[in-house]
Amino acid sequence: MENTFIHLKQTPDQNLVQLSGFSIYKHPPRNSVVEVNKTEYKVLDTNYDTLPSGLDAAVVLDNTTGEISIIYEGTQPEKNNADVLTDASLVLSDKTADQFRDAHAYYKEMKKKYKHIDHVAGNSLGGGLANYVAVKEQVHSVTLDPAMLPADVAKEMKDYKHANITNYCGIYDPLTLAEMAGGYENRMPGKNIKINFGISWLKFFANNHTGYVSDEETNTIKEKITIGKKGTPSYGEIHFMADAYISTNIWTGDPLTKESVGTSQRIKINEESMAKLASAMETQVMASCKTADDYLQHSIRTVESEGSHLDDRKTNLQIQFDELLRSNPMLNQLLAFVKVESLGMALLKKVSPAGGFMLDLFHSPFAEKITSILSSISRLQGCLVNLPLLIAQLGQAILDLEECITSITQKDIPLLFKGIDNHFLDGIVDELKAHYEKIDVNKATVLKQVSNFKTQTEEVKEMFEQLDTEIGNRIEDGKGGGLESVSTKITPSLQVTCEPSPYLKAGMDIRKEQLQYNFNRFSKNTIAQLDPILNQLRSITNQLINVLYDAKIIVKIMKFEASLIHIPFVSFDNQLREKISEMDQMVSTAIDTCEHVKVLIANIIDHLPDILQSFKPYIEIALFNGTQYEAVIIYNISALSILEQMKLQFREMSYQLSENEAKAIQQLFQQASTIEGNMDVLIEQVKRGTL
């Protein structure tokens, strides 16, 4: 079922992403002004550190458009564990956590106060909160690496497509990678768009999730991070800002993806649309292409200068796999089951009638009047006699899982490095240099073509400005006849194609196969060690669930029996019913928790290969830690991200320009198509030269 939602974009998704991934974490005070991408946002209202649930949020006004947005803050583990418990409850329960209800209540309060809320947004847990509100209220939501919805809400809304929700997911984000790998994608409503930002270095693990790096001195965004070794050609900077990697349609501002390109409504080719194209070429496209050119230039110079020393390792090859594996939200919450006081073990230990009020009933002066309940208590004690043992076994199995992860880190990581030493690239160094020489030539070709296209768009824009309304209308209708007379003024298209490269087609493949072989063997060994413990956990959890369901039946009988007891002049019977109701609630909650631990374990078992695969980018870059080739990989991946974006832009331009018959527009169309084709060649060659 598709919900009806129409929203005319004024606040760019990029700005909402930056507000969510950076600004909100700084807790800007009320009435302050936050600047995002040269747009000012006034903070109208704040809700920081006021609610037990841990909800933090702010209301901001776009001073340019007048639109109002609520930005929900993401997980802050240091804050009294409130956010951590909310994250855990998303996995361990199907009930909506308090923070989600508070987020919804805050939205309704702010909408009543300001008459309209145009957007909600957030990162991490904040993204989950924004999407929850969007599902409930049909407001426009933009998120960065969001947490999943509570299971009950996701189930309720499973038949809706949620056109009002857009989730931007970084390719190196540990949370969304794990959620997708763990089979929880059905709990992320809306359109999920992958964005190629971030670096698969462990030190940027958290930044890959929030999308930004903070400058500790200025408390502002650190737009670029340093790469390579100082004093060598590898030394330089790359951009690290999530919103900078969001590709949007030049004319509409809608997200531009492989699926959406070439499918939108065609624009009218007129003065306004050509002005937008010319402006985008000047401010976005050309700048992006120059950045990609700079990244590739660092790679080329590094390969040329380092040669056979490209993969010399200056540091000890170690990888914090323990940190990687524990970052997975499913494994993390399973390990937290024995540690977080409000969850898991502490809850199960409360489910016992062995002491307190229940035990005192046997010595009560009213014992003769409640014989049936006393009999049920005895049966309940018998039913739960094995509960302490099962709880202890569950706790021990989880500790065994933790020890196994540590053992894998210490003993199995060396499998990843087999055959990958200081001579790994020997034998292909000359080919590598020759291949990068081709890349050098071809990147220059693409840059010249893009510059040529930029000049042409500016000239066509100027022609539209000069033409009178009548001629403009004829061109707008695609009939031609207006621009033909001045088409000779358009700069001729640069007719060049990228040169093919015959290099590295075999040598690099062999080394890629070695990396894949090592990873597959490591993955197989890891799964073989974790599987028995996970299956033991599943077995113990099933036994716990069976015991608790038996107890639930007995407690239900006790509730019925207590409802029939009426002792005048004293409150004993009311207290009895209250205590039995409390027991019923505790057993129900324990069942709910164990059922979701069961699902959690099943998902880990079923998707363990996918979970390990999601860590592969971090593992592969760590294999070259301390080498010059590490910088080459980072520069190439960053350049590829930009080139892929630009390829989409030129494909969309080709689509929009293709049906207009005016000669000048056709010239632009053909040149855009040629540029896209050359970018394909360049992208393939950069990928070929990157392990």
UniProtKB/TrEMBL annotation:
Pfam families: Phospholipase-like (PF26363). SUPFAM superfamilies: alpha/beta-Hydrolases. It comes from the Bacteria. This is Uncharacterized protein. It comes from Heyndrickxia sporothermodurans.
